[in-house]
Amino acid sequence: MKFIIATNNPQKLIELERILSPLGINAVSPKDEGICLEDVEENGSTFMENSFIKADAACKKTGLPAIADDSGICVDALNGEPGIYSARFAGENATDIDKNNLILKRLENTPESDRGAHYTCAVTCVFPNGDKIQVEGKCFGRIAYEPDGDGGFGYDPIFLYNGVSFGKVSADEKDKVSHRGNALRMFKAELVKYLEENNVNK
Questions:
Q1: Which residues, 6+ apart, have CB-to-CB distance to 108 below 8 Å?
Q2: What CATH architecture is 2-197?
Q3: Are 16 and 26 in contact (CB under 8 A)?
Q4: What string of DSSP letters covers the chain?
Q5: Among candidate residues 174, 171, 168, the one with its CA nearest the CA of residue 119
Q6: What is this structure's pTM?
């Protein structure tokens, strides 16, 4: 059985391949199927809505079950920003360093007690028959005073989990506690349940 992963991010594709292959599922990318999802407008107001928009578009274009995720960081002192705008928070062509520096700049006079933040990852799977699976994982931590470590990506160097930057932990350590790791574990459980209940031929 083949599922399309609605992303152009090779890291996300590899993560989902690890989860799906033991279930007898072949994960393919939009490129593998010869389709483009660049024109899909993520105009939802939540992570979950945006993940559905991407998965639904991929499912309709290919006729395959489709999986998409949407994720970002929410900073308490910024009223939840950047949230769903995490990728373009500092402008369309901003680097991860630019985005991290913008958050640090806006929090420069914010005390430790008010530097709470969390990552969110919403995952949606849409099936050609209209069924869908949706889960959301979170990881709570704090915003550091300066970047630390060059691992991970995005806001990881300024996100502290139990006092340690996500930019300094290994991928395996991060997977155990991260928003995406939590969401994907929930998704796998829900997918196994769905396949069994619907006698889906893998």
A1: none
A2: Alpha-Beta Complex (3.90)
A3: no
A4: -EEEE--S-HHHHHHHHHHHGGGT-EEE-TTTTT---TT-----SSHHHHHHHHHHHHHHHHSS-EEEEEEEEEEGGGTT-BGGGGGGTT-TT--HHHHHHHHHHHTTT--GGG-EEEEEEEEEEE-TTS-EEEEEEEEEEEE-SS---S-SSTTGGGEEETTEETTSS-HHHHHHHSHHHHHHHHHHHHHHHHHHHTT---
A5: 174
A6: 0.91
- In the chain, where are the structural domains located? 2-197
pLDDT digits (tens, 9 = 90+) for 37-54: 888 888 999 999 999 999
Q: pLDDT of 173-187, one tens digit each?
A: 998 999 999 999 999
Cβ proximity of 188 and 135 under 8 Å: no
Catalytic residue among 32, 39, 69, 70: 70
Q: Is 70 one of the annotated active-site residues of the chain? A: yes
